[in-house]
Amino acid sequence: xxxxxxxxxxxxxxxxxxxxxxxxxxxxxxxxxxxxxxxxxxxxxxxxxxxxxxxxxxxxxxxxxxxxxxxxxxxxxxxxxxxxxxxxxxxxxxxxxxxxxxxxxxxxxxxxxxxxxxxxxxxxxxxxxxxxxxxxxxxxxxxxxxxxxxxxxxxxxxxxxxxxxxxxxxxxxxxxxxxxxxxxxxxxxxxxxxxxxxxxxxxxxxxxxxxxxxxxxxxxxxxxxxxxxxxxxxxxxxxxxxxxxxxxxxxxxxxxxxxxxxxxxxxxxxxxxxxxxxxxxxxxxxxxxxxxxxxxxxxxxxxxxxxxxxxxxxxxxxxxxxxxxxxxxxxxxxxxxxxxxxxxxxxxxxxxxxxxxxxxxxxxxxxxxxxxxxxxxxxxxxxxxxxxxxxxxxxxxxxxxxxxxxxxxxxxxxxxxxxxxxxxxxxxxxxxxxxxxxxxxxxxxxxxxxxxxxxxxxxxxxxxxxxxxxxxxxxxxxxxxxxxxxxxxxxxxxxxxxxxxxxxxxxxxxxxxx
Length: 514
Description:
disordered N terminus; 6% helix; mainly beta; 25 strands; two-stranded antiparallel ribbon; 18-stranded antiparallel β-barrel; 42% strand
């Protein structure tokens, strides 16, 4: 029996839970009978994950398992326009040559009916890139916001633009209490997310198991042997940066990667370049108004993480107003990463000689505290939020799986504020004007450590979103971000002048579900 099958067999026997993401604990979706509904088969949530209103029911035979399945279609476009404020030669490599990106495509997903509690899901995803609104092949490395509409690895190998991939493909056993999935799947947790805001979701290959262990309480355990980021057609290692040929986009090239954990460094340390990821979490809403989750992640020989999160809703008026304080504590433990990466930060640059605590030379131990206070409006019309995050002055937080450590607290669009000794304050307001239109605005003050050479200068961020439900199946989303780097901190550090990375960013997205 090979290594993968052994892990599959072991994990399948273990228990699991529903996920917790961004402070919201989401239970597993039960199988329900397909039926006509005033609602569409699927609906987009605010974070662009999908809510299934109709799922296939039970089948009496293998034939019915196929014939009674349900197809879910999605047509989508994503358009991006990006402008750096300072593109002077003195400001280094910042360039507006690749400031236009567009993806046109969609997905077709098939879910079979359940025969003796067994079913399967297959999902094709594709993205095409019109020539008039994409970077030249020699400039793809300069693409920022829209880089996930195509594959930089594919273009760099001379294989052209466009992506076509199996985004989901898994077998499932679900008896109402235990839910086991084996194959390529979406996996929403505090560490890992589908993050489906471009054209193709972030998915994982392996086995996950979930079980209801008590009223309103779940436990979940998963093993993943590979990841497929949004701009990849094929899966890759969950942590290794670069491939054997040295291509920066040939393995885990997520923006949250640790460049010191490269293919060459693992080989030099006598370690494997293929890694396993184990995730476990327990979540409960058993106590009224309290959402609590405890999560664990380990990549053996690299890193271990423990995250505790709690949110408590306190009604303050009979009309429906309430306050909801919340906290997330993220604790990162070295499990061999520092020995592989050497004395580097996430950028793979010298750390202790460039402003980092001397401890990062031998350990990536670190921690992150998030806190927030929400004021909830009646009838779920919206909320006001005040949030804060602080990273300890140790190592940077390692998180290349799209489950942003500050997500749901202080992270704004396109921002990575979990470098060592970073503080962020955020205020946010969300309001649903009617069934057609909703808007959100965030303002973040990011205070990075000016003495760390390879960390950005302090900045202020404005991030605006609008959602327009043109019909019950067609939605338009507009997004705008302005990042203003503080000029008085851009030059205060040990090694010289930091780049002024101020920019404006515009996004326009259409989604049609059928």
